[in-house]
Amino acid sequence: MQILDAEKESKIWPLFRLGFRTFFLGGALYACLAMLLWLLALSGARVLPGVGNPIWWHAHEMIFGFGLAIVAGFVLTAIQNWTGIPGVRGWPLALVSGLWLLPRLLMPLRGELNPLVIVLDLLWLPLIAGMLARPIIQIKQWRNLFFVPLLGFLTLLNVLSYYAAASGNWLLAERVFISAVLTLSALIAVMGGRVIPFFTSRATGTEKPQPMMLLEKLSLGSLWLATLGWLLLPRTALFNGLLAVVLLVAALSNLARLARWNSKLTLNIPLLWILHLGYLFIPLGLLALAAALLQLGITVSLASHWLTAGALGAVILGMIARVSLGHSGRPLEIGKPMAVAFALVILAALLRSLLPLLAPGLTTIAYHGSALAWTLAFGQFCRLYWPVLTQPRVDGRPG
What we know:
Blueprint: H1 3-9, H2 19-42, H3 54-83, H4 91-110, H5 115-121, H6 124-139, H7 147-167, H8 170-204, H9 213-232, H10 237-259, H11 270-293, H12 300-326, H13 336-353, H14 355-358, H15 363-390
């Protein structure tokens, strides 16, 4: 950037100098707040006075509130590296982050069917897509244009989630939420394949394994196919069986993909093992969903938490910890407190997805323990990374 650009940027509050700052911090804070509200609601406290369906609210907000905030922060930051064009900053970033925040604050009070809440919540993600599209089209970098229709697809799923809430159709809501979770899992698989082997190779001084194109196409293609199948296929024994086969193929191929990434070399590097463990929850979650479709003793809700509490929780926490350090000019090193946070998010995933399966009588304890561990994990991130995300880069560079 030119010196003039740096002078202009010095007048911008650091929180709004690049997308990772506002959306990573906002998303992590909301991960704590929303989970704490859910924990209190589970305990019988009236903390969601305007919400008609607290289960709908919990699922919707952890996906479209928390999860997509992190996605927004990631792509708004990465687009600068991909295109060489300065990323969104200043008042446009403040505007779109405010549009994300308002529905989060209003929904517990006004409810999920409030027109203002719905309009605001359906507005911010297309704005992010537009902010991405402009530089990509400007330099004709078509490879990364897929994020634009992807965000459009997630917006469509959000529309359907509100329609399901308005019509009281929980089966549709569950179908939409699982489709959104699978979409985010597929996005993790795409980006994980790009960065996890690279991070591992660089940190361990080993050669980066070259992708096997057939395995790449099989693992990613089957996962995207499973996502569309979950959304569109009729719920009959025949189609459930076919979808279970696709999920099984996706699970095994993604497990084979992960096995090539030298996970055993990461045991002493928390910034790496959290990503490898988080990715492991993807094939485990796909297997669990296949078992749920085949009615093999697990519910769809329980199966989905291998992906939400597991893959999304662990990979997101690992990625925001790493990206925040790199883009603030700091060494890629963390201390024991953040490693404890990684352990807590893994514990939250296991309590929520595994304990009810092994000991159904402990399900309530599992829910409460998982929510508490999750809140502590992301709360630790907020505590440790507040100065990282709200203060200028330590090397004096813009961003």
